[in-house]
Amino acid sequence: MAALSRTAAVVLAAGLSRRYGPASKLYAELDGKPLALHIAQTVGALPLARRFAVCRFGDEELARMFEREGFTVVINPDSARGLSSSLAVGVEAVETLPDIDAVLVCLADMPNVSRRLLQALVGELEGPADIVGSATRSSPPTPPAVFGRSHFEDLMALEGDKGARELLANARLVRAMGAELDDFDTPADFVRS
Fold first, then answer.
1. What's the rounded Cα separation, in Å, for the pair 164 and 140?
2. Are 49 and 43 in contact (CB under 8 A)?
3. What is the DSSP letter of 103?
4. What predicted TM-score, i.e. pTM, was given to this entire model?
5. What is the rounded CA–CA span in Å between residue 15 and residue 80?
6. Angle at which helices 35-44 and 115-124 pack, to 10 degrees?
7. Does 111 sit behind a cis peptide bond, omega within 30 degrees of 0 on the bond before it?
């Protein structure tokens, strides 16, 4: 069982928001605050060893928002290379820390993720070779997910826009409740919430 105090979080917030439109969806207001602030505050409320946010080059406003919530910001210099490039940048920052046993990966466009789910994911991790992902009854394994330290090299080697989908295919799963795993990609997603 992994401990929160030996787990680092990485929130991926460097996407290009292509389906949302010309503005970044991470600033779009949801329930009175920017979309990205939801997951930042949820992760920030946990007693994790460290918190990292991966932001796009030049997105200083988003970087400052995460820093105010206690995150160390790392920059993805080429976020057009896809989700995997952001994952690699974030895990590389964690990998240098010898006291970290696992990385908890979250997406900045999933505002409904609960502390309960994040705590359950970390609590289910049994060792450095373990992976625990999230799922609903009808969804495939997805972030948020926690990866034991022996997977850090694999995570840093991923390419493209699929993230860690292949690694998650063999993950043990924690069941998410209701809309916890909804991601927000288009303006219509903000209306339905």
1. 12
2. no
3. E
4. 0.92
5. 8
6. 50
7. no
DSSP 26: G
In the chain, domain spans: 4-192
Chain position carrying tokens 């991966």: 54
Going by the DSSP 8-state scheme, the letter that residue 187 receives in this structure is H
The tens-digit pLDDT sequence of the chain (193 residues) is 568 999 999 999 997 555 544 557 888 888 999 999 999 999 999 999 999 999 999 889 999 999 999 999 999 998 878 788 999 999 999 999 999 999 999 999 999 999 999 999 999 999 999 999 999 887 789 999 999 999 999 999 988 766 688 899 889 999 998 889 988 666 666 675 5
Contacts of 73 (CB under 8 A, 6+ apart): 52, 53, 54, 55, 63, 66, 67
Q: Identify whether the C-beta of residue 150 lies closer than 8 Å to the C-beta of residue 129.
A: yes
Pairing of strands 142-148, 131-135: antiparallel
Tallying the residues shown for the chain, one arrives at 193
User: 3-state SS of the chain: helix, strand, coil percent to 5?
Assistant: 35, 25, 40
CATH 1.10.150.120 fits 4-192, yes or no: no
At 46, list the tokens.
Answer: 């946990």
| 36 neighbors 73 (Cβ within 8 angstroms) | no
